[in-house]
Amino acid sequence: MTSSKSCKTLGAVTNEAKSMTEALILLDNNNYIRYCSDTAYDVLGLHPHEVVGQPIAEVLSSRLPYQTYQDLADSLLEMVANPTGCPQTIEVGCSLHQSRELMVTVLPMSPARDSVKTSVLIRDVTQERETERRRDTFIAMLSHELRDPITAIMGFTRMLLEKSSLTDNEREWLENVHICGRRLNAMTRDLLDVVSIRSDSMTVRLEPVNLQQILDEVLPVIEETYAGPRLLVDVPQNLPEVIADRNRLAQVLVNLLSNAVKYSPRGEEVRVCAYHEPRRERVVVAVDDQGSGISPEEMESIFAPFQRSHRLEKQGMNGVGLGLCIVKGLVELMGGELWLESELGTGSTFYFSLPTRQGHSPTQWLN
Ligand code: ADP
What pTM, to 2 d.p., does this model score? Predict the structure, then answer.
């Protein structure tokens, strides 16, 4: 259900709920159940006629097998009791006869309509998650298998390129093979990173890091890869060190800067700046471009794997759609946040934060 449905009448919403696979529960100002769709029986085993008119807290504690649904009940009650004014979504696991994963979304209705203040949507995502896990296992296996042949291609082309007897044409063809090998290598690395992030098996080695030093290593790589973009850096000299994994921070910056340059096809300026937020003991880094920009619809799923703008694909921009998903995973693993501001045709700014020494407990460092 989208937030636009909050403008519909209660009758229209409950009518639509009949064809939905999600369970829909509508709550009034006092968190009593005003409506419960029939699907609630399939998803939670709740009989709508038994729960309508009851307080949600009581229904969750007395009508559900509490041990099985404890996490769901606790999280749902927490979200309903402390509304943030924005939609909130969580996923919880529970096991009745077999383990299941449920996605719970709490949508505030502001202002309340037909005395409904909150809608709760509960979806069984067990099958989806299982399919994703199988896909990830397959991707990881394939990427591992591809590594050896790619390493061989890279090694042998490098050896051949060292021969002085090559004709100009032969050298050009071999260089093309070598470049393709490098791309394939990067792609398999990205695929493995995505799988590790999604399966929570990625680890980072955190230590105090000087951001300017990392930028000094990264900027020449970008300048060499993308013939002469205009890169401007604005990092204050007294910027505190951040707590990060040096290599992973470099990877985050390479990804964001490559995108900024790649999606600024007219060669516009790309800017990196950083500032300290003492109140939250964190450093914020902004990578800003004046390129193609991102539409609000694209923004909704931009951090999910394999998401690419069809608009840019049509313009022949190559890529796989893994970079931002990896950037988000890595930044969050290092204790930071990632967000963006963008306007179509005007440009984008990707921000990420990292904790400073004061904002981070040294016991969390892995070294
Ligand atoms: P890739 O660049 O390989 O497609 P990413 O995950 O890095 O993968 O980016 C996903 C999509 O987000 C891109 O395909 C593009 O549509 C959009 N995007 C990312 N960065 C920018 C940017 N700076 N400006 C415009 N669009 C961007």
Answer: 0.76
Ligand 1 atom with the smallest distance to the CA of 308 is 14
pLDDT, residue 359, reads: 76
pLDDT score of 366: 46
Dihedral Cα 69, 75, 80, 81, nearest 10 deg: 110
* Rounded distance from Cα 19 to ligand 1 centre (Å): 35
DSSP state of 198: H
**CB 287: neighbour CB atoms within 10 A?**
25
Is the minimum distance from the CB of 263 to ligand 1 under 6 angstroms?
A: yes
> Taking 80 as the threshold, does the pLDDT of residue 349 lie above it?
yes
Q: Does the C-beta of 324 come closer than 6 Å to ligand 1?
A: yes
Q: What residue type is assigned to position 318 of the chain? A: N
Beta strand spans in 148-227 (E): 207-209
Using only the alpha carbons of the chain, give its radius of gyration.
Answer: 25
- Do residues 253 and 214 lie in contact, with contact meaning Cβ atoms separated by under 8 Å? yes
Q: Which atom of ligand 1 is nearest to the CA of 287?
A: 23
Is the separation of the CB atoms in 31 and 57 below 8 Å?
yes
